[in-house]
Target: Rrf2 family transcriptional regulator
Amino acid sequence: MQFSFRMPVAVQILLCIAKFDGVFKTTSTFLASSVNINPVIIRKTLGQLKAAGLVEVAAGVGGAKLVKDPREITLQEIFNAVEEDEDLFHIQENPNPKCPVGRNIQQVLGNKLSVVKNHMLDDFAKITLADLLNDINTAEESRQ
Amino acid sequence: MQFSFRMPVAVQILLCIAKFDGVFKTTSTFLASSVNINPVIIRKTLGQLKAAGLVEVAAGVGGAKLVKDPREITLQEIFNAVEEDEDLFHIQENPNPKCPVGRNIQQVLGNKLSVVKNHMLDDFAKITLADLLNDINTAEESRQ
DNA sequence: ACTCATTGTAATAACATGATTTACAATGAG
DNA sequence: CTCATTGTAAATCATGTTATTACAATGAGT
Model:
């Protein structure tokens, strides 16, 4: 059981824009070839990132730009942009109300798990696009 | 995007066993009626919990017992018992090797995300079955 | 030894969700 | 006006989860 492609794809899109803006026109087709995924997915994701105020997309002419400095864009924002705001885990919605465990499980377990989710979001908030870009560059250097 | 039922179901199973062992025979049908789910799911989950050394199940006669003290059973063990040991997120497996971002994204993002996953598991390790049982009992008391 | 409720497990179906693909109107710089 | 591109809808495919049915194996109780 894993989270979907969406957040990693969004990260890769933003990294490509950060790295190639000004060098290449970062169209959905261009980005799609880096991720190796369908351009429609890129356009949808780009739409979510635009709605979240992270990028602006030039309709018609094509290409996307970052709105904020990579040091100001966190993984938390990216995650929130592309994922629903919902619980991390799916707790049974119709447990038996006659069972003392069943009638309290949602509240009790839900409380504990929401704390865990918040910790995860805190961790995400500490990782910036600039960090990732830096790691990409370091990895590139050590590649030769 | 959420994790599946499995871990919450496993938690509820263990809570019911802890609460009702000695009072009722905790058969898969009994447990299924608390969770309001199919008994086969219970039996499969119970099998995973047995394999993880958390419960023992009486084949033939029926019923399950905890092998360990609820204070010694953590959410981490329960999570590991029922979920694959895999990455939290699904990073594109075939990114473009000609793109400097594509050819490093797995390593760079994977590293960051594995740290986050480990933090999540650490959080889980701090929550015991006894904690949850206690919360259930408290919630029950405040219910009247 | 027999009974019978129960477990363990396989197989299948039903369902939900994610990803792919095709298609096309709307956009906007040149 | 043109044309590459975006934004979006719809249909399809793939995959994973949950539900359901079925039945052999188990083992305590009689």
Notes: The mean pLDDT of chain A is 92. The domain at 6-141 of chain A is CATH 1.10.10.10 (Arc Repressor Mutant, subunit A).
